[in-house]
Specification:
The complex is a heterotrimer. Chain A is mainly α. Chain A contains 14 helices and no strands. In chain A, helix 3 packs antiparallel against helix 6 and helix 6 packs antiparallel against helix 7. By secondary structure, chain B is mainly α. By secondary structure, chain C is of the alpha/beta class. The chains are: A mainly alpha, B mainly alpha, C alpha/beta. Chains in contact: A-B, A-C, B-C. Chains B and C meet through helix 2 and helix 11 of B and helix 5, strand 4 and helix 6 of C.
């Protein structure tokens, strides 16, 4: 049928664009992270390679591309090669429901958020596979921590997003965006500040970013689950981490910050600005706080975020039923 | 339990404090010195202990003051130094394996003639271990020749203010050791006016001043010897250029300034012979540490 | 490999171990491609945190705000050797550390470079004397070294110059201006 062919072509084009977006995002994020880290530490970061160090990320990726093809002995071959691929490609799927602009949604489905939350779990699988296949007890420890952490932090994330779904009455990302206004005081963040806070914390925990970066804790596990990866495998893990960050930032922007709506003109630029503001915030957090202990991490989730999320949801439901 | 909850909520404030600190640093100017386009101040480099080098000779900057007594080689805890004595006192080969050196300074302190000093070669990087066995005699030759070839730099401000105190003393003490810092210029001031005017002494002038040269030259090592413990306090060949590096703020640069202008590499060879034989008694004061400035301890 | 076991015998001087540093030539061995990748490798050298002793402080200082090694691309100090290119051996290599050092060197994927910082890493430094049994006299007894940065310890600028020298060895030219030497 014509309609399904059109949708098929649309999806293929969207996937190609999203791959370009992910690669471009990785380049920009590498540069942004190193520059922000530098300026927080009162040094310039990459500066000499290219004008103000802009070519640095490309140099890094080219170098990683040209490393020796390396496989340690005694690893589980299939799993070892599958893990980085599994880290990188499913993230593509998660970008499809996001409304980039008023008419720029790759796949307009009614349960957009369900798709995103369901497939975000695949990232956990890749971490676990990487740790297991490396045949290295420290990598396995890193992988076990990663699984525990990601599974734990998905729940407050769901609860926070559910509160916004209650408010909007729909799980469709486009409708959630449409129900927010142009100006900052019309965004969902004012109606659900606690949910936003819970979502921010679980965002950092979900993507294994500091201060919750125990799976790849440098001083404890020498790079954790991706210790044994070099060259392109490592680059794929790196890329998938930044793509995950971008995805959850997009979701935060859509749910709490008004999506593509902005003061002057609606469009995809507002979404990008808001998402990169959230990511800047994540980088800022990374270079401010020390790493938490693993039991503190899980305590924070199960004893604080989960009850708060439930309370928030309950309060939202009551207020909506009684007053709205 | 409510108190526990309230304590935890108050703890969130510390997170905000942390973020504000890093946020403030984010907006502060960077502190980086963009090496290699910029380098740190010379003051800091002056206290850096680089590989040791032979100090410039008193009369001839390319000749070392070393007398091959092997005190440094014995004092060195890392056995870095190999000094090969020639027929005369001066060494014919001076090898220094920098890769065993711990920069303790025992050799610099022990040397009786003040022939050693720390250089400030910060940027020494090699691709083989053999390149780290430094031949100090050829290095001295290079530096001494460069010194002879360069234009005498302007007098540093410290020397300018010290020179009035030194100059009046010089005519009064022609060849005594009472005031070691003022003795050397005494005989030289006679030859100063004709020499001070020229930057590069030519061959004619040294021939004319040959007669006063032995007489004045005889006082050179003598007068210099009480102060030879610190290599750069030697007024004979002190050049303000080298002294900036060694951060000397004594009067030595002041009196060395006319001396440096008068001394040229070409005229020194015949003057060396009478130097060593003159006034052996005065050489007994070589371990007088009172006149030694404290600057050699490596502090800025 | 046999050499690490030999090192564990006290009193016996360590021999130059044939660390497995032979790598097959690249799959695509064209000159312009090699030149391009060499340039990228030189501009993005990732060191491995291999600070052993006091020279490690200078390495850390070189990565801090005042002398920023990140300006030249070497910011990312990877703790895992499999993701690093440059092994900066900073500090004294004891015989106990010799075995892990060689093992880590062999685990680094090619192309890899080694910089020996400080007199202890170059030759045992001040810890070499007759009858000593603790220190490996120079890391080049164990693994092939590309650049030697002497000093006790070398200044952070010297470590940066060592990185420049490695870049020069990789690409064939020096990319940054020469620093102004002090008048000495």
């Amino acid at each position: 049928m014509d309609l399904s062919l059109a949708i098929f072509v649309q999806i293929i084009a969207a996937v190609l664009l999203i791959i370009a977006l992910m690669v471009g995002n990785a380049v920009v994020m590498v540069y942004m992270e190193r520059k922000v880290a530098g300026f927080i530490q009162r040094r310039p970061g990459p500066y000499e390679v290219g004008p103000w160090g802009t070519i640095q990320a490309i140099c890094d990726s080219m170098k990683l591309l040209a490393k020796q093809l390396y496989r340690p002995g005694n690893v589980d071959l299939i799993l070892y090669y599958l893990a980085p691929v599994l880290a990188f490609f499913p993230v593509l799927l998660l970008f499809l429901p996001i409304p980039f602009g008023p008419w720029l949604t790759a796949l307009h489905i009614n349960e957009g958020i369900v798709l995103i939350l369901a497939f975000a779990g695949l990232g956990v699988l890749s971490n676990l596979l990487a740790g297991w296949a490396s045949n290295n007890k420290f990598s396995l420890l890193g992988a076990a921590r990663a699984v525990a952490q990601t599974v734990a932090y998905e729940i407050p994330m769901i609860l926070a997003l559910l509160a916004v779904v209650f408010l909007s009455g729909s799980m469709d990302l486009k409708r959630i965006t449409e129900q927010q206004g142009q100006w900052p005081w019309e965004w969902n963040i004012l109606l659900q500040p606690l949910a936003f806070f819970i979502y921010l914390v679980s965002l950092v925990g979900e993507t294994n970013r500091a201060p919750f970066d125990l799976p790849e804790a440098e001083s404890e596990l020498t790079a954790g689950f991706h210790t044994e990866y070099s060259g392109m495998g490592f680059a794929l893990f790196f890329l998938s981490e930044y793509a995950n960050m971008l995805l959850v930032s997009f979701v935060a922007a859509v749910f709490f910050l008004g999506g593509y709506k902005g003061p002057i003109a609606d469009g995809f630029w507002w979404l990008f600005i808001k998402a990169y503001a959230v990511m800047f915030f994540m980088v800022w957090i990374r270079w401010t706080f020390p790493r938490v202990r693993f039991d503190q991490l899980l305590n924070l989730n199960w004893k604080w975020l989960l009850p708060l999320g439930l309370l928030n949801l309950w309060a939202t439901a009551i207020i909506m039923k009684i007053f709205l | 339990m409510l108190k526990a909850i309230w304590d935890n909520i108050k703890g969130l404030y510390s997170l905000l404090v942390g973020m504000s600190i890093t946020g403030r640093y984010l907006l502060s100017p960077v502190e980086t010195i963009h090496f290699p386009r910029q380098v740190v101040d010379d003051e800091i480099m002056a206290s850096f202990r680089g590989p040791i080098q032979l100090t410039l000779g008193k009369k001839d900057p390319t000749q070392t003051r070393c007398i091959s007594c092997q005190m440094c080689a014995k004092a060195c805890p890392g056995h870095c130094l190999t000094v090969t004595k020639g027929d005369a006192k001066a060494p014919i080969q001076w090898l220094y394996d920098f890769s065993y050196c711990c920069l303790c300074g025992a050799c610099v302190e022990t040397c009786p003639t003040g022939a050693l000093e720390f250089s400030h070669k910060v940027y020494l990087v090699t691709v083989s271990r053999q390149e780290l066995i430094l031949d100090l005699l050829s290095d001295l030759k290079t530096r001494g020749t460069q010194l002879g070839n360069q234009i005498v730099p302007p007098v540093p401000p410290a020397a300018k203010e010290a020179s009035p105190s030194v100059a009046p003393a010089s005519p009064s003490a022609p060849a005594t050791l009472a005031a070691p810092t003022s003795a050397p210029p005494a005989p030289e001031t006679k030859t100063d006016p004709p020499k001070a005017a020229e930057i590069k002494p030519d061959a004619a002038k040294p021939a004319q001043t040959k007669e006063p040269a032995p007489a004045s030259g005889s006082t050179d090592p003598v007068a210099a010897s009480p102060a030879v413990n610190s290599a750069t306090n030697n007024p004979a060949t002190n050049n303000p250029a080298t002294n900036i590096a060694n951060d000397v703020k004594t009067g030595a640069p002041a009196q060395s300034e006319p001396k440096a202008q008068t001394v040229a590499p070409q005229e020194l060879a015949p003057a060396t012979k009478p130097e060593t034989k003159a006034n052996p008694v005065a050489n007994k004061k070589i371990h007088d540490h009172s006149s030694r400035p404290a600057k050699k301890r490596g502090h800025k | 490999m046999a050499a690490p076991e030999k090192l564990l015998t006290p009193g016996e001087p360590p021999s130059l171990a044939q660390a497995q540093s032979q790598v097959d030539p690249p799959l695509i061995n064209l000159k312009p491609v090699n030149w391009f990748f060499d340039l990228n490798r030189a501009m993005s050298l990732w060191p491995v945190t291999f600070g052993l002793a006091c020279c490690a402080i200078e390495m850390m200082s070189a990565s801090m705000a005042r002398f920023d090694i990140a300006r030249f691309g070497a910011e990312v100090f990877r703790p895992s050797v499999r993701q690093a290119d440059l092994m900066m051996v900073t500090g004294t290599v004891t015989r106990k550390m010799a075995t892990p050092l060689v093992r880590l060197y062999e685990q680094m994927p090619a192309p890899k470079y080694v910089m020996a910082c400080g007199n202890c890493a170059i030759s045992g430094g001040p810890f070499k004397f007759d009858g000593q049994y603790a220190v490996v006299e120079g890391v080049d007894q164990l693994i092939p070294v590309d650049v030697y940065v002497p000093g006790c310890p070398p200044r952070p600028e010297a470590i940066l110059e060592g990185v420049f020298k490695i870049q020069e060895l990789i690409t064939g030219r020096r990319w940054w201006p020469l620093p102004r030497e002090m008048a000495s």
